[in-house]
Amino acid sequence: MAVPKRKTSKARRDKRRASSYRLPKVTLVRDSETNELIVPHRVNPITGMYKGRKVIDVE
């Protein structure tokens, strides 16, 4: 059975763990009407539009 020659330092251990716990980057797209960055496949909170249709009333 393989046995480590040296103890893994806390910094090396934490660097390895940090890569798997990192949050994925948010994807943003430009809105065709307002030209602002928005999250895709969501209702635009500024205009209330989704796929070119008015879905919610924005005051």
Structure in words:
The chain has a two-stranded antiparallel sheet with strand order 1-2. A hairpin with a 6-residue loop joins strand 1 and strand 2. The protein has 59 residues and is α+β, with helices and mostly antiparallel strands. Helix content is 20%, strand content 14%. It is rod-shaped, with a radius of gyration of 23 Å.
Topology:
Blueprint (H helix, E strand, L loop, with lengths): L9 H12 L7 E2 L6 E2 L10 E2 L2 E2 L5
Antiparallel strand pairs: 1-2, 3-4
Q: How many individual β-strands?
A: 4
Kindly estimate the percentage of residues that lie in beta strands according to DSSP. 5-15%
* Cα radius of gyration in angstroms: 23 Å
Order of helices and strands: HEEEE
Distance between the amino and carboxyl termini: 67 Å
Average the pLDDT over all residues and give the rounded result: 89
Low-confidence stretches: none
Derived from helix and strand composition plus strand pairing, the structural class reads: alpha+beta
Helix content: 10-25%
Biggest sheet, strands in spatial order?
Answer: 1-2
- CA-based shape: rod-shaped
Query: In DSSP terms, counting alpha (H) and pi (I) runs of 4 or more, how many helices?
Result: 1
Describe the sheet with the most strands: 2 strands, antiparallel
